[in-house]
Design brief:
Blueprint: H1 2-16, H2 44-53, H3 57-71, H4 75-87, H5 91-104, H6 109-121, H7 125-139, H8 144-158, E1 169-173, E2 179-183
Antiparallel strand pairs: 1-2
Helix pairs in contact: 2-3, 3-4, 4-5, 4-6, 5-6, 6-7, 7-8
Protein backbone atom coordinates (compact mmCIF):
# COMPACT_ATOMS: atom_id res chain seq x y z
CA UNK A 1 0.00 0.00 0.00
CA UNK A 2 2.88 2.31 0.87
CA UNK A 3 4.42 1.67 -2.55
CA UNK A 4 1.17 2.66 -4.26
CA UNK A 5 1.06 5.97 -2.32
CA UNK A 6 4.68 6.76 -3.24
CA UNK A 7 3.99 5.91 -6.90
CA UNK A 8 0.90 8.18 -6.96
CA UNK A 9 2.85 11.04 -5.36
CA UNK A 10 5.67 10.66 -7.89
CA UNK A 11 3.17 10.62 -10.74
CA UNK A 12 1.63 13.90 -9.54
CA UNK A 13 5.05 15.51 -9.14
CA UNK A 14 6.14 14.45 -12.63
CA UNK A 15 2.92 15.79 -14.15
CA UNK A 16 3.52 19.18 -12.51
CA UNK A 17 7.16 19.46 -13.49
CA UNK A 18 8.18 22.09 -16.08
CA UNK A 19 8.35 20.81 -19.64
CA UNK A 20 5.69 18.16 -19.24
CA UNK A 21 2.62 18.04 -21.41
CA UNK A 22 0.33 18.10 -18.39
CA UNK A 23 0.80 21.86 -18.00
CA UNK A 24 -1.04 24.06 -20.47
CA UNK A 25 0.51 27.45 -21.01
CA UNK A 26 -1.43 30.17 -22.84
CA UNK A 27 -0.27 30.96 -26.34
CA UNK A 28 0.16 34.71 -26.81
CA UNK A 29 -2.31 36.21 -29.30
CA UNK A 30 -4.65 33.21 -29.34
CA UNK A 31 -7.95 33.25 -27.50
CA UNK A 32 -8.47 30.35 -25.11
CA UNK A 33 -10.25 27.52 -26.82
CA UNK A 34 -9.55 28.82 -30.34
CA UNK A 35 -7.17 26.92 -32.56
CA UNK A 36 -4.67 29.14 -34.38
CA UNK A 37 -5.85 29.74 -37.96
CA UNK A 38 -9.35 28.42 -37.25
CA UNK A 39 -12.44 30.07 -38.74
CA UNK A 40 -14.20 32.57 -36.46
CA UNK A 41 -16.83 31.00 -34.25
CA UNK A 42 -19.30 33.90 -34.59
CA UNK A 43 -20.94 34.59 -37.93
CA UNK A 44 -20.01 38.14 -39.05
CA UNK A 45 -23.62 38.68 -40.18
CA UNK A 46 -24.81 38.12 -36.61
CA UNK A 47 -22.22 40.60 -35.37
CA UNK A 48 -23.28 43.12 -38.03
CA UNK A 49 -26.98 42.68 -37.17
CA UNK A 50 -26.18 43.35 -33.51
CA UNK A 51 -24.08 46.38 -34.41
CA UNK A 52 -26.93 47.76 -36.50
CA UNK A 53 -29.42 47.17 -33.69
CA UNK A 54 -27.04 48.99 -31.33
CA UNK A 55 -26.99 52.03 -33.63
CA UNK A 56 -23.52 51.38 -35.03
CA UNK A 57 -24.53 51.47 -38.69
CA UNK A 58 -21.09 52.32 -40.09
CA UNK A 59 -19.44 49.42 -38.24
CA UNK A 60 -22.33 47.17 -39.25
CA UNK A 61 -21.84 48.07 -42.91
CA UNK A 62 -18.12 47.31 -42.67
CA UNK A 63 -18.89 43.95 -41.05
CA UNK A 64 -21.50 43.12 -43.71
CA UNK A 65 -18.85 43.92 -46.33
CA UNK A 66 -16.42 41.51 -44.67
CA UNK A 67 -19.16 38.87 -44.61
CA UNK A 68 -19.76 39.46 -48.32
CA UNK A 69 -16.06 38.97 -49.05
CA UNK A 70 -16.18 35.71 -47.12
CA UNK A 71 -19.47 34.21 -48.35
CA UNK A 72 -20.46 36.22 -51.42
CA UNK A 73 -23.28 38.69 -52.02
CA UNK A 74 -26.56 36.94 -51.28
CA UNK A 75 -29.89 38.78 -51.55
CA UNK A 76 -30.33 38.64 -47.76
CA UNK A 77 -26.88 40.11 -47.18
CA UNK A 78 -27.59 42.90 -49.67
CA UNK A 79 -30.88 43.68 -47.90
CA UNK A 80 -28.98 43.91 -44.61
CA UNK A 81 -26.43 46.22 -46.21
CA UNK A 82 -29.28 48.39 -47.50
CA UNK A 83 -30.68 48.62 -43.96
CA UNK A 84 -27.31 49.92 -42.75
CA UNK A 85 -27.31 52.48 -45.57
CA UNK A 86 -30.83 53.59 -44.57
CA UNK A 87 -29.67 54.10 -40.99
CA UNK A 88 -26.75 56.17 -42.30
CA UNK A 89 -29.16 58.32 -44.32
CA UNK A 90 -27.84 57.01 -47.62
CA UNK A 91 -31.28 56.49 -49.11
CA UNK A 92 -30.18 56.60 -52.75
CA UNK A 93 -27.56 53.91 -52.14
CA UNK A 94 -30.07 51.78 -50.25
CA UNK A 95 -32.63 52.19 -53.05
CA UNK A 96 -30.09 51.17 -55.69
CA UNK A 97 -29.10 48.04 -53.74
CA UNK A 98 -32.73 47.05 -53.13
CA UNK A 99 -33.72 47.53 -56.76
CA UNK A 100 -30.78 45.32 -57.79
CA UNK A 101 -31.93 42.62 -55.36
CA UNK A 102 -35.50 42.85 -56.66
CA UNK A 103 -34.33 42.65 -60.27
CA UNK A 104 -32.82 39.22 -59.49
CA UNK A 105 -35.37 38.06 -56.87
CA UNK A 106 -38.58 40.04 -57.46
CA UNK A 107 -40.48 38.34 -54.62
CA UNK A 108 -37.95 39.01 -51.84
CA UNK A 109 -40.24 40.26 -49.07
CA UNK A 110 -37.49 41.93 -47.01
CA UNK A 111 -36.21 43.84 -50.02
CA UNK A 112 -39.75 44.95 -50.93
CA UNK A 113 -40.42 46.13 -47.38
CA UNK A 114 -37.16 48.04 -47.14
CA UNK A 115 -37.64 49.60 -50.57
CA UNK A 116 -41.07 50.74 -49.44
CA UNK A 117 -39.49 52.38 -46.39
CA UNK A 118 -36.88 54.12 -48.55
CA UNK A 119 -39.51 55.32 -51.01
CA UNK A 120 -41.72 56.62 -48.20
CA UNK A 121 -38.76 58.48 -46.70
CA UNK A 122 -38.03 60.01 -50.10
CA UNK A 123 -41.63 61.18 -50.44
CA UNK A 124 -42.63 58.64 -53.11
CA UNK A 125 -45.77 57.67 -51.22
CA UNK A 126 -47.64 56.09 -54.14
CA UNK A 127 -44.82 53.76 -55.15
CA UNK A 128 -44.09 53.01 -51.48
CA UNK A 129 -47.72 52.02 -50.93
CA UNK A 130 -47.67 49.70 -53.98
CA UNK A 131 -44.39 48.17 -52.82
CA UNK A 132 -45.75 47.56 -49.30
CA UNK A 133 -48.90 45.99 -50.80
CA UNK A 134 -46.79 43.55 -52.79
CA UNK A 135 -44.66 42.70 -49.72
CA UNK A 136 -47.83 42.27 -47.65
CA UNK A 137 -49.38 39.94 -50.26
CA UNK A 138 -46.25 37.81 -50.62
CA UNK A 139 -45.89 37.61 -46.84
CA UNK A 140 -49.61 36.74 -46.42
CA UNK A 141 -49.83 39.58 -43.90
CA UNK A 142 -47.84 37.62 -41.29
CA UNK A 143 -45.15 40.20 -40.48
CA UNK A 144 -46.37 42.98 -38.15
CA UNK A 145 -43.74 45.44 -39.40
CA UNK A 146 -44.92 45.10 -42.99
CA UNK A 147 -48.55 45.54 -41.90
CA UNK A 148 -47.63 48.68 -39.96
CA UNK A 149 -45.54 50.07 -42.83
CA UNK A 150 -48.45 49.52 -45.23
CA UNK A 151 -50.81 51.22 -42.77
CA UNK A 152 -48.50 54.26 -42.56
CA UNK A 153 -48.22 54.47 -46.36
CA UNK A 154 -52.01 54.21 -46.76
CA UNK A 155 -52.54 56.91 -44.12
CA UNK A 156 -50.14 59.19 -45.97
CA UNK A 157 -51.96 58.52 -49.26
CA UNK A 158 -55.38 59.25 -47.76
CA UNK A 159 -54.28 62.42 -46.02
CA UNK A 160 -52.88 64.68 -48.70
CA UNK A 161 -52.29 67.37 -46.06
CA UNK A 162 -50.03 65.01 -44.14
CA UNK A 163 -47.85 67.02 -41.78
CA UNK A 164 -44.54 65.47 -40.72
CA UNK A 165 -44.46 67.60 -37.55
CA UNK A 166 -47.72 66.07 -36.36
CA UNK A 167 -46.78 62.47 -37.18
CA UNK A 168 -43.05 61.78 -37.09
CA UNK A 169 -41.70 58.31 -37.81
CA UNK A 170 -38.30 56.79 -37.17
CA UNK A 171 -36.64 53.95 -39.05
CA UNK A 172 -36.07 50.93 -36.80
CA UNK A 173 -34.06 47.83 -37.68
CA UNK A 174 -36.08 44.70 -36.85
CA UNK A 175 -33.25 42.25 -37.50
CA UNK A 176 -32.36 40.28 -40.57
CA UNK A 177 -32.11 43.49 -42.53
CA UNK A 178 -35.81 44.34 -42.17
CA UNK A 179 -36.53 48.00 -41.45
CA UNK A 180 -39.82 49.42 -40.24
CA UNK A 181 -41.29 52.82 -39.50
CA UNK A 182 -42.14 53.54 -35.86
CA UNK A 183 -44.18 56.53 -34.76
CA UNK A 184 -42.16 58.82 -32.49
CA UNK A 185 -44.78 61.52 -31.78
CA UNK A 186 -48.54 61.26 -31.27
Amino acid sequence: MRALTVFATLLVLVACAPGTSARLEPTPGVAPGAAPGAEPVVDPRIVADRLLAAGEAELALETYTRAAAREGLSPDLLVSMSAANVRLGRLNQAERILRDVLRDTPEHVGALNNLGVVLLEQGNTGEAQRTFRKAFALDSGETPEIRENLRVALAKMENSSYNTEQSAYTLVNRGGGVVSLVRTKP
